[in-house]
Amino acid sequence: MSWSAFAAIVLMNLVGAAAPGPDIVLVTRYATRSRRHAIAAATGIQVGVLFWSSLTVFGAAALLTAFPGVLSLIQVVGGCFLVFMGVLSIRSGVELRKHPPQDEDDAAARLGSVGKVFRTGLATNLSNPKIVLFLAALVAPLLPPHPPLWLSIALVLSMSLSSYLLFVFLSTVISTRAIRRRLLAAGPWIDIGSGAFFVVAGCALVWAGIQAA
Fold first, then answer.
1. Using CA of residue 166, residue 167, residue 168, residue 169, what is the dihedral sign?
2. Which residue of 95, 149, 160, 210 has the smallest Cβ count within 10 Å?
3. Carries keyword Transmembrane (predicted)?
C-alpha cells in the first residue's frame, strides 16, 4: 500500500467526518455553551470512531454485510436512541425558553457532568452502524488483501486521531467567548433545532433498518 493511498483514506475519512450528521450537530450544540463539554462529547464520539474503524480495517465489517439482520437491528435500536435524544433536546430547549440561563456558567452547568456528555457522544456515534459501510467502501479498494498488522493499526489510529483533531478544532472555534456570548440567547432554539434533527435522523435510521430487515 502506497503512502498516497494511505493519505487518501485519511483525507476522505476527514471529509466524511466533517459532513453534517448527528456527531457534528451534537458537538456544535455543546460547544455553544461549554468547551469542556464539547471536547468531552468529541472524545466519546472518537472512541466510537475507533471502534468502527477497527471493525472495518480488521475485516469484521464483512460480518455485518453477510448478516444484514444484525445491521438492521443495530439501526433500529440506534435510531430509537437518536429519537430519544432528540426529544430530550427539544424539552431542554423549551425549558430554556421558560427559564433562560443567567450567564455562561449557568448555561454550561445545565449540560450536566462531562462524564455524562462523554457517554452521550459515544452512544451517538455507536448508534449509527452505517459508518462501517462507509469506511468499508472507502478502505477496501485501497487496502491490500492481507495488510500487515502495523499497517492496520496505523490506519485505524490515523483515521481516529485526524477526525478527533477536527472535532476538537470545531469545539474550540465555536466555544470561543465571543461566539458563545452571541449564541447564548439562541440557546433554546439551538436545542430545539438539534432535537428536531435527531428525531428526523433517528426516524430515518429506524425506517432504513425496518426496510432492510
1. positive
2. 149
3. yes
pLDDT in tens, 176-193: 988 887 777 787 888 899
Domain spans in the chain, listed from the N-terminal domain onward = 3-212
In this structure, what DSSP letter does residue 147 have?
A: -
pLDDT of residue 127 exceeding 80: yes
Report the C-alpha gap between 157 and 28 in whole angstroms: 24
Q: Which three cell numbers stand for residue 103?
A: 450567564
| Coil/strand/helix, residue 33 | coil
If pLDDT is split at 50, 70 and 90, which confidence band does 211 have?
A: confident
**For 21, which DSSP code?**
S
pLDDT score recorded for residue 140: 63
- Four-CA torsion 101, 102, 104, 110, nearest 10 degrees: -40
In this structure, what are the phi and psi dihedrals at residue 34, rounded to the nearest 5 degrees? -160, 125
For residue 1, give the DSSP letter. -
What one-letter code names the amino acid at 75? Answer: Q
- Cell readout for 87 is 426529544
Q: How many angstroms from the chain centroid is the CA of residue 61?
A: 19
pLDDT at position 166, please?
Answer: 92
Distance CA 135, CA 152 (A): 13
Q: What is the pLDDT of residues 90-103, one digit of tens each?
A: 998 898 888 877 77
Q: Is 112 left (phi over 0), alpha (psi -120 to 50) or beta?
A: left
pTM as predicted: 0.81
What does the longest C-alpha to C-alpha distance in the chain come to? 59
Which are the contacts of 67, defined by CB distance < 8 A and separation ≥ 6?
none
